[in-house]
Design a protein that fits this description.
By secondary structure, the protein is α+β, with helices and mostly antiparallel strands. It contains seven helices and ten strands. The chain has helices spanning 46-64, 74-88, 149-155, 197-200, 207-215, 219-232, 235-240; strands at 2-8, 17-22, 25-30, 105-110, 114-120, 125-128, 133-136, 176-181, 187-191, 249-255. The strands form two sheets. It has a five-stranded antiparallel sheet, with helices on one face. Strands 2-3-4-5-8 form a five-stranded antiparallel sheet, covered by helices on one side. Helix 1 (46-64) packs across helix 2 (74-88) and helix 5 packs across helix 6 (219-232).
């Protein structure tokens, strides 16, 4: 499959997304921006977590290609990457703090036989299977009983709550995973939640329209139109939805 991608930071901030594409694999990690006033217990910021975890995951995906046809499972690779990232924290980092820096993950891996995926938290994967568009979405964070800072902390990486890549490798085994025959996948879109907004928040596209936009004219145009929609929306509307007005946006299109 051929891959094209683009990423852009939130205006005025550093980019907390991480993106990587290799021979037969691709992923996006969307670092969770820390809420103001929340103590993470860690000397590292979210950007460090996303970039460090991305390096560990890319290394393992690249290495796993040498094991064809017996590829290790994607949850195993993500769990190992989380463990390795934890080892890079220092003694001043409290890894038991539920507000430790965290990230979503959307991973795709394909061979001539199979297209595999892993989706953890709110970074979706959209599969174009020809006659069918199949969104792969982990929506558990949309169903929390309490969205206060304390409520989210109590639900993070807990049964009945939601799961993210942070300090608990077991989160990898709570991801939405699956596979389809490779020859059924015409196109696939990997998205950070900042790049899915034209569908999920603004409702100006459906998933097919978003994949078509990624295909032509391309990922950069998707992000440009997303920024335009963000600027056009009244600030109070974003506040009412308890959403940031802008967000880092990263999108990958895979095409046969």
């Amino acid at each position: 499959m051929r891959a094209t991608f683009a990423t852009e930071h939130t205006p005025g901030r550093v980019n907390e997304d991480a993106v990587a594409v290799g021979d037969g694999w691709a992923f996006i990690l969307d670092g969770a921006t820390a809420r103001a006033g929340v103590v993470s217990g860690c000397v590292h910021d979210v950007r460090w977590l996303a970039s460090t975890l991305a390096g560990e995951l890319a290394q393992r995906l690249l290495g796993s290609q040498q094991t064809l046809p017996a590829l290790p499972a994607l949850p195993d690779l993500l769990a190992e990457s989380i463990q390795a990232t934890c080892r890079q924290h220092g003694p001043d980092c409290d890894l038991s703090n539920p507000n430790s820096p965290s990230s979503t993950a959307v991973i795709a891996r394909w061979t001539s036989e199979e297209f595999e995926y892993l989706v953890l938290a709110d970074s979706p994967l959209i599969l174009d299977l020809g006659r069918t568009i199949r969104p792969i979405i982990d929506d558990r964070i949309a169903h929390l009983p309490d969205y206060s800072a304390d409520g989210v902390a109590r639900s993070r990486n807990q049964p009945g709550g939601f799961w993210v890549a942070s300090t608990n490798p077991d989160a990898a085994y709570q991801a939405v995973t699956g596979s389809v025959p490779a020859d059924e996948v015409h196109r696939a879109a990997l998205l950070s939640d900042g790049a899915s907004r034209l569908v999920e928040q603004f409702g100006v596209l459906d998933w097919l329209g978003l994949v078509d936009l990624l295909d032509k004219p391309g990922p950069a145009e998707l992000i440009r139109r997303t920024r335009a929609a963000e600027r056009a929306e009244a600030p109070e509307m974003a506040a009412r939805r308890q959403e940031k007005r802008h967000d880092d946006a990263t999108a990958i299109l895979l095409r046969r």
